[in-house]
Write a structure and sequence with these properties.
Blueprint: H1 17-40, H2 44-86, H3 89-92, H4 100-106, H5 114-124, H6 128-134
Length: 145
């Protein structure tokens, strides 16, 4: 694998070129074109074309969201297992209180920072972004799609 750029809070979001720069513009443009055609020539052919394009656009977004949700579930499981091994006994029982977003934010924290950040997340109700911003030594996640 080629050398990857060091990941930080500032650059950890990832764009999928085929989705963001190919599929998304094509389906967005097709949807607007289908609306325009139906507006110009309202008949059942242009109406059906619009419905098909709209359904395909929704399907593309749903497929993307489903894969992200599966990844979030895996991350949630991984982080609960990691927290169970890293947190002191007093905090282990509070792992279920962490929200899905908090667990996803904690995945970027190295093992040495997790106990402190998990405690802060619980006591201060930190958001995912606040957790990420609090990380001093970023633990990269290059596998997120």
């Amino acid at each position: 694998m080629a050398e990857q750029k060091t990941q930080t809070f500032a650059n950890h979001t990832r764009l999928d070129p085929l989705f963001h720069f190919f599929l998304l513009p094509i389906f967005a443009g097709s949807t607007f074109a289908a609306i325009y055609l139906f507006w110009q020539r309202p008949d059942w052919h242009t109406g059906w074309r619009f419905l098909l394009i709209a359904a395909a656009t929704v399907a593309i977004f749903k497929m993307r969201l489903y894969s992200l949700k599966v990844q979030d579930r895996v991350i949630r499981l991984e982080e609960r297992l990691r927290l169970a091994s890293l947190l002191p006994e007093a905090l282990r029982s509070r792992i279920p209180e962490l929200t899905e977003r908090q667990l996803i934010g904690l995945r970027f924290a190295p093992d040495s920072e997790v106990p402190r950040l998990a405690e802060r997340a619980l006591s201060e109700k930190l958001s995912q972004a606040d957790i990420k911003k609090s990380i001093k030594d970023w633990r990269p996640d290059y596998w997120r799609v």
